[in-house]
UniProtKB/TrEMBL annotation, chain A:
Record membrane topology: Multi-pass membrane protein
Keyword Lipoprotein included in the entry's annotation: no
CDD domains tied to this protein: EcfT (cd16914)
Species of the source: Lysinibacillus contaminans
Transmembrane segments: 12-35, 55-72, 92-110, 122-144, 223-250, 262-280
Protein name per the record: Cobalt transporter
Primary location recorded for the protein, binned into one broad class: membrane
Keyword RNA-binding: no
TrEMBL record, chain B:
Keyword set, alphabetical order: Membrane, Transmembrane, Transmembrane helix
Entries under PANTHER family matching the protein: UPF0397 PROTEIN BC_2624-RELATED, UPF0397 PROTEIN SPR0429
Protein name: Metal ion ABC transporter, membrane-spanning subunit
Residues annotated as transmembrane: 12-32, 38-55, 67-87, 93-124, 157-180, 192-217
Domain of life assignment: Bacteria
TrEMBL record, chain C:
Membrane-traversing stretches: none
Family: Belongs to the ABC transporter superfamily.
Name of this protein: Cobalt ABC transporter ATP-binding protein
Major localization listed first in the record, in broad terms: membrane
Length: 293, 235, 554
């Protein structure tokens, strides 16, 4: 997914927030299926080998949610059976499944988001809003792996004086863990002062700080931003006009197949397919370039 | 003057977001959204609650040493969360946030909690739970800071009670409210089911908070005090 | 016009009676390479910090510091931040952000430069320092040498006129340190950059200096060219131990005039002495050795199943009362070998024997009490308490058998009395190491493993450490030391071994070992090679020199 990821962070963030935002609210079966299918497809393109393993993790979640709803919600007209005088209805089962599908789709979309929006892109955007906080996050990001390494070193050093958190009773282990954390904190705080000095020495705190990044907003980013806004706008308009609404209770509402509704479905499908389309287009272009060389 | 233009633009945008966009979004949410409106509204409110504290920190132009100390505390809780996975849910994050709040004040406590959530989600992956986590840990740190000012938290009993309270608060916010509002299924049975499944976690949160607080509060507190005095910060 | 002029500077830390800086007068000209030396605690870091306004310590100050005839305090904020660059000791601590490119840009962002300017400067720096290939990487994964180079580049991006460095190479291995010093030399020669450097590696640095400033007890006692340093300081000043080999030998032989600084100059001088070549050698003295207490047989180890072996067919043994030094390049697996010997990592083939019994048969509590102790590279990993006294007392509790007499004995052996009420983190590097060692000695180990014990400590502390180690050897303790420090291992160990490609390739007593190597050997040996037969330490060369000259005169 190199070509989609290369777009400006603003465009990427805007895209994912728009899509995830809509995915959370459209409970219409057609929309749900579209959201889910394209989430899976995109995630597969992003992760390839890791994908099936991840999907396996989600399958039990899907079933649990699909089962829980009919057990606690007894609305609906199509009763299948009674459990302890409570009705288990077709509507409740479908609603549970729809809900599970929606949650699953959102989680998978987030998964793709996490793959595309790496920390530097997120920090770049966040830095535009809140530079100090973004810098603080960036420093924290740098410290975490460093502390992990230091915890490892401390753990080994402590082991050689008889403090081992991997063996002994639970209480002893906990005591070792707190001892390691305590050593780490002293070390970290004293070192942090030197980092602060290094920031000061390089002029941190001068008025009118600027922010630098390697990201450049190109023309194509503008275009894509426009396209996303247009397609999302149409979809939201469709939602206001009621095309995305679907009732499960008291019983299912009618599925619409009019020209307008199919039009809205397609717009939504195209919106979700943007990353995939860009990827394929770019692939074809490369192949063409290589064959003409 | 490109710089001051930038600043003015930022101010305009943030005012716009706070006073125009958020209310509109909220209104739209209440009117047009059905099942998801509770999740939606609570996310907006949760984010909204964090904004003033973030803005205050931003405006104050904190010294490098203050920034570093907050980053250190947040990074320690994240690194601790990654490494000591003895039992699921048995994490030092809340305890470290609380201790930071007690000894360095409400703002530092809030920031440590909120940053721990953001950063640990950058490592583990963002999801619909990010805003809640940020808010919950942030608030736990904030409350600890407010109580810390009164001197109550020097007592062991107060520490234990607060540890239990923080565990319950976190569990309620994340497991109960988070799940229910997201799924949009509201009924007494749903509450009971959610509370029931969340209970073991609530207990683990509370117990781990209490244990870590009792063991860590004094040593970390002393270290923070030493740093405050030696380097003259956050006084 | 001098670039920097310090005029009668005096400074007291808050609530301290003794001054930290006393009557400091110093003039630095544009383009000079100045080396600031002195024993730890003499005030050289305090002085250097005063030259960087943002880092000037709090306290009572009198006198003036003039930068281009303007008082440092009156400089415009941006000028002060940009024109005086500062690089600190620890490469890790100075890195602020998580990406290399961002780190390079950090100072420029602070100055409020626009994107285009920053882009150009960052590109320039990346090219000059050879950073292009890791430009987009995370800072976490860089080596120590790369990190320190990045710190230097990030400071240089701000285009300073004056560069201050406080022991920038103390945490680096010899090769990375040399590379860093070469870069400094290049900056000085090619850009005319003014440099003030505090450094322990005088062997490499002093020949590059235009001016050396020697501090002692908060005062400057010498300013001038390094060649004349010897004539102006007292004959038995403690600083002599830290000077380059050639200078030390020259001094000990009571010579007058310009001192040789490099090995080449030293050889040239030595060849002019009335010495008959290759005739004299140092007498050997044999020591009675104890039983083998630690032995590794045919060890093979790797971290991951599919990675390469780090140790392969690794063999070694050490006897009671013997000190074995394992030397070798960086990243070859020396430290891993130490982890295997201490039971922290398990080999997939072969065994380690402690007192004739397999190491894996020991319970942790038995192994690490009364048997084996490891001094970690960073002594701070052992500190928990807020006072040296408490640190030792808590350890005394852990080591059930340690009596009060034992504690008192250790305290006096390690000379810790005057530090008992201090916070462990307020101690100097050498003192911290002694404290860590004291904690370990309370466990009464028979085998002591040391990981890079001389890293980052000065000549004086090294000598103190050697004194302690020798006292332990006399008590029958066996010591294994992993080190980069050729000089230290040559002077103090009983046996040296070269680690290469997963095992020990050659070993022997220091004299045979180092006189057999031609590159990987001590400065004294390189200086006297072909002139004296088997001299490997400064002392050797001095003794032989004196012997030879008396022979000739008789």
């Amino acid at each position: 997914m190199k070509s989609f990821e290369m777009y400006h962070p603003l465009v990427l963030f805007y895209y994912f927030m728009t899509v995830i935002g809509m995915a959370m609210f459209f409970m219409h079966p057609i929309y749900l299926v579209l959201t889910f299918m394209e989430a899976v497809l995109l995630n597969f393109l992003l992760l390839r080998h890791g994908f099936w393993k991840k999907l396996m993790m989600y399958i039990p979640l899907f079933f649990i949610m699909a089962i829980i709803n009919p057990l606690i919600s007894h609305n609906g007209e199509l009763v299948i059976l009674y459990v302890n005088d409570n009705a288990v209805t077709m509507e409740a089962i479908c609603y549970g499944m729809a809900m599970a599908l929606m949650i699953l789709a959102v989680i998978i979309w987030f998964n793709s988001y996490n793959g595309v929006m790496t920390s530097d892109k997120f920090l770049y955007l966040f830095g535009k809003l809140s530079p100090v906080l973004a810098l603080t996050i960036s420093i924290t990001m740098r410290l975490v792996p460093r502390f992990k390494h230091q915890i490892h070193i401390i753990t080994q050093a402590q082991k050689t004086i008889g403090m081992d958190y991997t063996s002994g009773s639970v209480w002893e282990r906990i005591k070792c863990v707190t001892r390691i954390l305590s050593i780490l904190i002293t070390w970290a705080l004293e070192n942090a002062i030197e980092t602060a000095d290094s920031m000061k020495a390089r002029g941190y705190g001068l008025p009118e700080r600027s922010t630098f990044s390697l990201f450049v907003f190109e023309k194509r980013d503008g275009w894509l931003l426009g396209v996303i806004t247009l397609l999302a706008g149409i979809s939201v308009a469709g939602s206001f006009l009621g095309y995305t609404t679907f009732y499960f209770y008291p019983t299912f509402s009618e599925m619409e197949w009019s020209l307008t509704s199919v039009g809205f479905y397609s717009v939504y499908a195209v919106l979700l397919a943007i990353p995939i389309v860009i990827e394929i287009k770019e692939n074809i272009k490369w192949r063409y370039l290589r064959s003409t060389i | 003057m490109q710089k001051s233009d930038n600043k003015r633009l930022r101010l305009i945008i943030s005012t716009l977001v706070i006073f125009v966009i958020i209310p509109i979004v909220l209104y739209a949410g209440v009117v047009y959204l059905n099942d998801r409106k509770y999740y939606f509204i609570s996310v907006v409110i949760v984010l909204l609650a964090c904004v003033p504290l973030f803005i205050k920190f931003e405006r104050r132009k904190p010294q490098p040493r203050e920034i570093l100390i907050i980053a250190v505390m947040a990074a320690i809780s994240v690194a601790g969360r990654m490494i000591f996975v003895v039992v699921p849910g048995f994490k030092p994050v809340a305890a470290i946030t609380i201790i930071t709040g007690i000894y360095l004040g409400a703002e530092a406590g809030f920031l440590t909690g909120a940053l721990s959530a953001i950063v640990s989600n950058i490592f583990f992956g963002q999801g619909p739970w990010t805003p809640f986590q940020m808010f919950m840990w942030g608030m736990i740190g904030f409350l600890a800071g407010v109580l810390g000012k009164t001197g109550v938290m020097e007592k062991k009993v107060a520490l234990i009670l607060f540890g239990v309270f923080a565990g319950g608060l976190f569990s309620f916010g994340m497991d109960v409210w988070g799940v229910i509002s997201f799924s949009g299924i509201f009924s007494w049975e749903a509450y009971v089911a959610a509370l029931g499944t969340a209970l073991p976690f609530t207990i683990i949160y509370a117990v781990s908070n209490v244990i870590f607080l009792l063991l860590l509060a004094k040593p970390i507190g002393e270290k923070l005090k030493r740093i405050k005095i030696k380097y003259n910060i956050l006084q | 016009m001098a670039l920097l002029k310090i005029d009668n500077l005096n400074f007291y830390y808050p609530e301290e009676i003794d001054s930290a800086l006393k009557n400091i007068n110093l003039t630095i000209e544009e383009g000079e390479f100045v080396v600031l030396i002195g024993q730890s605690g003499c005030g050289k870091s305090t002085l250097l910090k005063h030259l960087k306004r943002e880092l000037a310590p709090h306290g009572k100050k009198s006198g003036d510091i003039l930068y281009r005839n303007e008082r440092l305090e009156d400089l415009d904020m941006k000028t002060a931040a940009a024109e005086v660059g500062y690089v600190l000791q620890n490469p890790e601590n100075q890195i602020v952000t998580d990406k290399v490119w961002h780190e390079l840009a950090f100072g420029l962002e602070n100055l409020g430069l626009d994107t285009l300017t920053i882009r150009r400067r960052v590109a320039e720096m990346a090219n000059f320092f050879g950073i292009q290939s890791w430009f987009r990487q995370k800072t976490v994964g860089l080596s120590g040498g790369q990190k320190q180079l990045l710190n230097l580049a990030a400071v240089m991006a701000m285009q300073p006129k004056l560069l201050l460095l406080d022991e920038p190479t103390s945490q680096l291995d010899p090769i990375a340190a040399m590379e860093f010093i070469t870069t400094l030399h290049k900056l000085n020669q090619e850009l005319g950059l003014t440099i003030i450097l505090i450094e322990h590696r005088l062997e490499e640095v002093l020949p590059l200096a235009d001016k050396v400033v020697l501090m002692d007890h908060s005062e400057i006692i010498y300013t001038g060219h390094p060649k004349q340093l010897l004539t102006d300081i007292p004959k038995n000043h403690a600083m002599h131990d830290a000077l380059p080999t050639a200078m030390r030998i020259f001094n000990a032989c009571d010579q007058e005039g310009d001192a040789p600084l490099t090995i080449r100059e030293g050889r040239k001088w030595l060849l002019q002495q009335p010495v008959e070549q290759n005739c004299v050698s140092v007498d050997e003295n044999y020591v009675e050795l104890g039983l083998v207490v630690l032995e590794a047989k045919d060890i093979a180890f790797r971290y991951e199943k599919n990675s390469d072996d780090i140790l392969h067919g690794f063999q070694m043994h050490v006897r009671a009362g013997e000190m074995l030094s394992i030397i070798g390049g960086n990243g070859t697996g020396k430290s891993t070998a130490l982890k295997i010997l201490s039971g922290l990592e398990k080999p997939y083939r072969g065994n380690v024997f402690v007192n004739g019994q397999k190491l894996k048969k020991y319970r942790n509590s038995d192994l690490y009490r009364e048997q084996l102790a490891v001094l970690p590279q960073d002594p701070k990993t052992l500190f928990v308490e807020k006072q040296v006294r408490k640190e030792l007392e808590s350890m005394q509790k852990v080591a059930m058998k340690a009596s009060a007499e034992k504690l008192a004995e250790i305290i006096s052996l390690l000379d810790l009395q005057h530090l008992m009420d201090r916070h462990p983190y307020d101690l100097s590097g050498g003192e911290q190491q002694k404290l860590a060692l004291a904690k370990l000695l309370l466990l009464n180990p028979k085998i002591l493993l040391l990981d890079e014990p001389t890293k980052g400590i000065d000549a004086h502390a090294k000598k103190a450490l050697a004194h302690i180690l020798h006292a332990l050897l006399k008590q029958g303790v066996a010591i294994v030391m992993v080190t980069h420090d050729i000089e230290f291992s040559a002077e103090y160990s009983s046996r040296c071994a070269l680690f290469f490609d997963g095992n020990l390739v050659s070993e022997g007593d220091p004299r045979t070992f180092y006189s057999g190597n031609s590159f990987y050997t001590t400065a004294a040996h390189r200086l006297s090679r072909g002139i004296f037969k088997n001299a490997i330490t400064c002392e050797d060369v001095i003794t032989l020199c004196k012997k030879a000259t008396t022979n000739v005169s008789v």
